[in-house]
Amino acid sequence: xxxxxxxGGKQYQFQEGRYTDIEFLNVEENSKVEFDKIVMVVAGExxxxxxxxxxxxxxxxxxxxxxxxxxxxxxxxxCKKGYRKKNGHRQLFSRVMIDSIDFAGKE
Length: 107
Description:
Blueprint: E1 2-7, E2 10-15, E3 19-23, E4 32-35, E5 38-42, E6 48-49, E7 58-68, E8 72-78, E9 83-89, E10 92-102
Antiparallel strand pairs: 1-2, 1-5, 3-10, 4-7, 5-6, 7-10, 8-9
């Protein structure tokens, strides 16, 4: 069973018992989080699609780690002008372990 969840302005695919790296959540490590903006649940015959979100659906998880992703280098240069600029960026992320996916009609 998996769920499509909207958080941080993006949509992520969550599965029970697996972790996913998502946009940074401002919460402590080893704390519980709940996601209520469930777009879709895929569970065989019990699959549901929200309009835009499912009512009464909830995904519960635990924040395993808050960290930074690998550095992305941005290099700008203008031909024949002597202009060079090198810049780097490391995006913050939260690693969330999905504990349970609850929705109406779940067996």
